[in-house]
Amino acid sequence: MLKVLIIIVTFNGKAHLPACLSPLKNLKENMKCVVIDNGSSDGTIEIIKKKYPFIELLEAGNNLGFGAANNIGLRKAIQEGYDYVYLLNQDAWIEPEDILKLLEIAERNPNYGILSPLQVYAGGKKIDDNFSSKISKEMKNDFLLPSNHPRELYTIRGKGLQAAHWLVRISALKKVGGFSPSFFHYGEDDNLCRRMEFHGYKLGIAPEIYGIHNREHRAKKKNIDEYLKIQSWKNILSDPNISNSIAWKMVIRSMIMKLPDYKLMIYKPIYTLLKELKKININKKKSYSAGAFLKDETER
Hints:
By secondary structure, the protein is an alpha/beta fold. It has helices spanning 17-21, 44-51, 66-79, 96-108, 129-132, 137-144, 170-176, 188-198, 224-238, 244-262, 267-275, 277-286, and strands at 4-10, 31-37, 56-59, 84-89, 92-93, 112-120, 154-156, 165-169, 202-213.
């Protein structure tokens, strides 16, 4: 029987725990759940220990970031012989039966490295905005319009999939590697998707399966747009599918396009990018090697 390790990274996620973890009380015999906590101070750790004893809890002690914390779970899955991992955000939830359905689809389509359910907001009536931005207009229509013969699996090319709900094949991880240390939070999922495609794996969406991402009414943090723009530049420079010269042309073009928005303040995101440039270049080179960022726990 194929084994699946569900990995959840928590950080001050107390409010999300009932919705996220309660469905996992019905885990199937081939499933296990591990939570990696990034130094929560709001009672998250205590609640998990008291109310969800069936979940294995690993305490990082401080905030490692989304990618580095997930890499702990990915290494665990490889070491313990799991066939798949299911990455689940703390503000998301899915029924174990739906994970099994995804698993069946994955087994029928071995050339796919990552599968995602249709990621929707609570209530299931609206596709998550960020998830929606990655798919074509035609695909959105297929997902929303009723059909007597819906396609089981849709392929995403060149745009990635947000990692709130990911079923990832372990054999693909062993080749492609884990999340890059170039990304503390945001952008790491896009980078791993691009590396999956570089190594010949496809990315897919199974629209008949719903995964809830409960963030529709979440307020945006201050300066988040500037931060995300920096992450997008880092993603271009980290993409193994793009040569360094072409990547820099794309980044410079993007910087010029942002001038009307940032004006003289454009130097701040540029300065931040340049400070991290050495690290970005080192990690891009590492990303070509098999199992990158999963071989050593200190490789962050």
